[in-house]
What we know:
Helices cover 31% and strands 17% of the residues. By secondary structure, it is α/β, with parallel strands linked by helices. Among the domains are: 378-577, 3-Layer(aba) Sandwich (Rossmann fold); 621-741, Immunoglobulins (Immunoglobulin-like). The strands form seven sheets. A six-stranded mixed β-sheet has the order 11-16-15-14-12-13, covered by helices on one side. Helix 18 links the parallel strand 12 and strand 13. The site of 1-deoxynojirimycin has 8 residues, from loops.
Amino acid sequence: MKKLTYLFLLAQLLLLGSLNAQPYKPSAGIDAKVNALLAKMTLDEKIGQLTLYTTDWGSTGPTIREGYKNDIRSGACGNLFNSHTVGFVRELQRVAVEETRLKIPLLFGFDVIHGYKTIFPIPLGEAACWDLEAIELSAHIAAAEAASAGLNWTFAPMVDVTRDPRWGRVMEGAGEDTWLGCRIAEARVHGFQGKKLGNTDAVLACVKHYAAYGASTAGRDYNTVDMSERFFREYYLPPYKAAVQAGAATVMTSFNDYDGVPATGNKYLLTTILRNEWGFKGFVVTDYTSMNEMVNHGVIADEKEAGELSLNAGVDMDMQGSIYQRFLKQSVKQGKVLQKQIDEAARRVLRLKFELGLFDDPYRFCNEERQNATLLSADHRKAAREVSRKSIVLLKNDKNVLPLQRNQKIALIGPLADNKSELIGNWNGAGNADDCVTVAAGLQGWSLTHVKGCDIEGSDKSGFDAALAAARNADVVVVAVGEKAMMSGEAASRTDITLPGVQEELVLELCKTGKPVVVVLMNGRPLAIPQIAQNATAILETWWLGTETGNAIADVLSGAYNPAGRLPMSFPRSVGQVPVFYNERSTGRPYNPDSKWTSRYIDEVNAPLYPFGFGLSYTTFSYSQPTATVSFAANDASKRYPKSPVTVQVTVTNTGKMAGEEVAQLYVRDLVGSVTRPVRELKGFQKIMLQPGESKTLTFTLKAEDLGFYRRNMTFGTEPGEYDIMVGGSSQDVKTVRVRLEK
Ligand code: NOJ
């Protein structure tokens, strides 16, 4: 009987596991409808379903062709992007369902990256909140707004792990960590796709950019990528898999190559891994003209061959390249691709159109009333304020200058203090800068003098004197400095990651007045700010927070909210340290600042300025020595669900005077492996609220896969031996317990 109960429980666990983690699965019944439709379609019409064109509403890439209406009418274009709002979409959908032979509705895609109309923090900023529910909610609100304004597909989440802050697209992802990236990828997919595809508050998610786009050499956008398969599978690949297993319906290829083959023509990525290993059932779309760009990569001679390479590799849909439209029919005739491959690709696209309910009601995502009620609703703004303040990271707070006191006179300085245009960041959907709350507006009611001081860029220092005078007359200086929104995002890599223009000089001059200086940073990447770190009294990293920027920052400055954000990416001391990241592998000559012959620089320490996982609070926390129990053997782990995972316990206490949240982070290190292992890797975290003096004992459980890795022979699993389990408030501030996995 006992055995039966055990088996039943095990079956339930396995079932639960598979329900929680399974790739998108089409609903039963749809296949028959798709087959019936496919049977009526000409080859041209099928290829039309594999074609995606931008409208002339916005440009998210180089213009290589114009026009799309006639293509819709003829059935040559079955999907559009960069078209939104009810009126516009409705008219285009009408052409598709009234004027084409088979009346197949269009998909409408758009880059809804961190909000549609209500703009949330940029994804890198949001990753700093270490609150998966908040991240899911933000994606869900973005989806609900987009799906009221005609859209049914977002080109998000971007799950590219990156260690290079020079890369402009660092703002769109979740930072440098693989495990955190996986959890955030899942949260975002769940948020975008909601409870069920077809609901009018859900859109198709598109995992991008598959794969390893975040490893562009030298942080230069569109550059090539080269890495070992071990490195790829361990650090870069897992977030795509997590997103696919969370049910993401579509995947976008990346611009770069992997192992010498551009991702868009890479069968190993698109078929071997994505379809065969992970069981992905949705469709794959190229990035913008990435199919055409394989000619520049020099792996094929012309665009026709690019189409053949792509389809044979596993690409279903051509974004903007018009290669499938122009050449695929001919390729079929010549036997370069098979008609049945085109059928299969069209089947994947049509299935999702059925799944979305577009055949029942092609206008289900175009509802004027819903659009008016949904966009920028009070609830959405409230949620944005909440997520925004959660995303702020307190990097420094000398003498507890923060929170500010209500009776203090504030000199509010800096080009971003009363600026609206930059606050929505890059990839800002349909967001309006005018809807944003500036820092000055957020601090309304305080005793404020506002002086700009300088511009974001340029060398003009004529505003310094007025800024310094305002500082001298105040009790405290709040200075908002940073980047322009367009300095990060696509095609926005920088070699210099310091504050642009004369902003740093302004801050340092303000520090010389002797007044406490609170620096509010607004930027899309980790910046190198060692001088500011040394001289400012307090620093808040606020990224680009979006619509509710000023209110969220005011909540933190005033102490109405105690900041609890933690960095999802290390901040280097200088660009010369890049890439600098916390989960590096052990070297043979570990860093020793006193020994020349170790892995180090002669002019700088190895550690970043602020490490991954770092962030302060207005209160303080202490950790007990963690304890751990192990009850599964190493060689059990790769074979079945571990009977009893490793359990770790630690007690966290609020040792300060204010209630606050702590992000307790758990890292592991395999001390002796068959290959070199990272010095630490995040494998769990818990965010907890503690009242002053309050303690909580936290329990973490580690599954076999958390201790597993690609072993010498490239199989995934654990090895017997000792592991350090570390728990603490940042990647560099931990307490350790050692455990042993027996054979
Ligand atoms: C190119 C970008 O790389 C991709 O992220 C985006 O979704 C497409 N353009 C469409 O705008």
